[in-house]
Write a structure and sequence with these properties.
The protein has 488 residues and is an alpha+beta fold. It contains 13 helices and six strands. The strands form two sheets. The chain has a four-stranded antiparallel beta sheet, with no helix packed on it. It has a two-stranded parallel sheet with strand order 1-4. The two termini are 66 Å apart. The N terminus and C terminus are likely disordered.
Length: 488
Amino acid sequence: MYKLVLPLAIAAALPCHTQAQHMTTPALNGASAVTQQNPGSSLSSGLRNPALDAAERRPGAGTTEQPSPDLPNDVGIQPAPANARRASAGAANMAAPLSVPAPLSLAAALSRVLQANTDLRAGVLEIDAQSGAVMQAGVAPNPELATLIEDARESTRTTTVQLNVPIELGGKRTARVNAAQLGQDAAGADLAVKRNAVLASTRAAFHDLLAAQQRQHIAGESLTLANGALAVAAKRVLAGKNSPVDETRARIAASSVKVDLAQAAGELAGAKNRLAALWGGTGRDIGRAEGHLDRLPAQPSLPHLMEQLKAAPALRLAQTELARRQALSQLERAGRVPDVTLSIGAKRDQQAGRNQAVFGLAIPLPLFDRNQGKLHEALQRSEKARAELDGARARLTNELAQAHEALTVAREQAQLLNDDILPGAQSAYEAARTGFEYGKFNFIDVIDAQRTLLQARTQYLRALADAHRAAADIDSILGAPGATQTVE
């Protein structure tokens, strides 16, 4: 008698009990499906939920959306026949064909970024613009044609026509061309810095996308495990072997995993958007990312990386900027030497009836303007560029050391999690679940083991993503793609 009354009381207290028995989630990555049909489902299938009955009696209730195939049929909603469902599905596919984005590899992502990134296009245009500055710097100043008419009367008028040719002295043209060429070199170095930064960001974003995909997969597997534990708990409660509190705990654990699954889906969408933004696209353009997140990057020694730092693009940019500033200082120093203007022409004297040759030479007198202000500005900006070079060297040294340390820590964490913690957490969960099924453990032990397993998997993914991100930072600093590439 006790075994008959207790299931009835439990079913009345937990009206959604039947739904938990019938909900099943496909196992991902070979995970064993542990959901089973409850032997007491025939007893609880005849119990009606008053709230659902009231909803069915409302006008238009249940007409806005189709019932999920995972829901039980004892809520008053009958599924459509199989033929009708296939016909409607075929009609929908013919009416609105869906285009599934192709899978994306790391090489394809890098190719897209190199072709469509706006910062890289702007850098190429800047180099082209600087070529125009180099062209203009080598052009000599234009001569000047001048005419002078004396006296308004035609009989006594004197007309002079002369050509004024400015002559640059002090090496101004050479200094100007040198400064312009260094400006073009600086634009090229700046493009190299941007290119390395964009490629490193692409590698990091791609591996973040792989981690987000894997986390969603793990969340799906965890939901399968949680639903299986819920089914086992419900089965033991109906059999009178456990308290209804265990089923409530199992239901809360399954709901918590659903929240994690929704969060993982949001993180996956965000990772796709961040990657696609590098080439001006959207996350909808990205299909499934194909790569090997679990292949850790190589770890060069710190002295070896410091040796490569001497040829880093950011240092080359700072050195080129210093050379350009020094060239501009030399140009302003040459500007202290005044230029001369040579004049040659002819003069027609109407009254005398003769033509005369005219020669002239104009030399500015540097009494007030000796270009002292511009020279001082150029010299100070040259010292500023030198200070910026020293600051860039110190900053890059610190960033490289931090990235190397981050890579070391992430690699150690990933290896420890993969070799020791993950196998232990998996074994502990399987032992706890099996022991609970045979009445050896409490259900709280199953929940704790399941939570520990999920946390270990999440930490492993985070460690892998951190390792690839640190490797991308090193490549961005050194400008040497492949120095810390994934070990195949």
